[in-house]
Amino acid sequence: MAIALYPGSFDPITLGHLDIIERASRLFDRVVVAILKNPTKNPLFSPEQRVRQIQQATAHLPAVRAIAFTGLTVNCARECGATVLIRGLRVMSDFEFELQMAHTNQSLAPELETIFLATNHEYSFLSSSLVKEVAKYGGPLEPMAPKNAIADLHALFPPKGEA
Ligand code: PNS
Known about the structure:
A five-stranded parallel sheet has the order 3-2-1-4-5, sandwiched between helices. The protein contains six helices and five strands; from the N terminus they run βαβαβαβαβαα. The protein is α/β, with parallel strands linked by helices. It has helices at residues 15-27, 47-57, 73-80, 92-108, 128-136, 147-156, and strands spanning 3-8, 30-36, 64-69, 84-89, 113-118. Strand 2 (30-36), helix 2 (47-57) and strand 3 form a beta-alpha-beta unit. The mean pLDDT is 96. The radius of gyration is 16 Å and the shape is globular. Residues 7-9, 36, 72-73, 101, 104-105 line the site of 4'-phosphopantetheine.
């Protein structure tokens, strides 16, 4: 059985992430979406909230599960039995860091392959940080994030007229 691990911060999940998860789930028997618990990043949502957001947004994908992890991604992959790490590439500027990360993971765990999926061009501008910024200023989030993540964002940043 081919298991892929898709690691990231997902604070919150965006439509770009969801697109990568959907496509990865067509390529692998199982996809584990792994949320890094990284308190130094001062996330907006707790790891538990992000796990729930991803579980709800991927409820239509039975091969997908979401977990939170600490420590090295390669150790998380080994614990999950994953042989592949998935990362999305949006634009050229992503590439340098992604390649450095892939090489680091390769040196730590040569048995793991990193596979890059080109982000759907519709979502190439999207990032969790920009989604949070748009939410903060009351902008429309429908083109950017799954409905349940939007509801969580609206709970923190009520849309204009509802504050
Ligand atoms: O969504 P992000 O923030 O771009 O994801 C980055 C992430 C979580 C994949 C990366 O920071 C990571 O793998 N962190 C865990 C620590 C680790 O394994 N470091 C070595 C590889 S860079």
